[in-house]
Amino acid sequence: MIEQEHAINLEHTAEYFTLESTLDIMINLFQQVFGIYIGELQVAERNSLALSGNGGDVVWHESVRMFAVRNTDGEHDFLAYLYLDLFEPDNMKRGDTAFNIIPVSIDDRMDRVVVKYRGTDLFTS
């Protein structure tokens, strides 16, 4: 619809906005507007989060990127995890969506569910 109304070729326009540069601009904008810090978790940090010690276990696909969101005021308090799933799988419908993720674990006695940290997953296409 946008292409027809404004005579824009979105595929041609996309050549000027690479994924990495667009992502950097968006993250910087969110950081400035909301007063937060968004940092991508490196392998060692993801490994420390996984019960197995394998950071690949905290994401559902190797292409998913995981970020920690922290407050920039005071003690840089942890706020949430942000998962970016930027590549559309063949079995999903097109469209941008966001899902809240609430990772949980069960304690040793198997009688209590513990909510760890909340997160959000962004799917884009």
Walk me through what this model shows.
Helices cover 26% and strands 29% of the residues. The chain is α+β, with helices and mostly antiparallel strands. It has one domain (20-123): Collagenase (Catalytic Domain) (3-Layer(aba) Sandwich). It has a five-stranded mixed sheet with strand order 1-2-3-7-4, with helices on one face. Strands 5-6 form a two-stranded antiparallel ribbon. The protein starts with a helix and ends with a strand.
Question: Tags for this entry?
Answer:
five-stranded mixed beta sheet, Collagenase (Catalytic Domain), two-stranded antiparallel sheet, 7 strands, alpha+beta, 125 residues, 4 helices
Biggest β-sheet strands, sense, barrel: 5 strands, mixed
Name the beta content range. 25-35%
- Please give the radius of gyration in angstroms: 18 Å
Structural class: alpha+beta
CATH class equals: Alpha Beta
Q: Tell me the domain tally.
A: 1
Q: Helix segment count? A: 4
Strand order in space, largest sheet: 1-2-3-7-4
**Ends distance:** 16 Å
Oligomer: single chain
Helix content: 25-40%
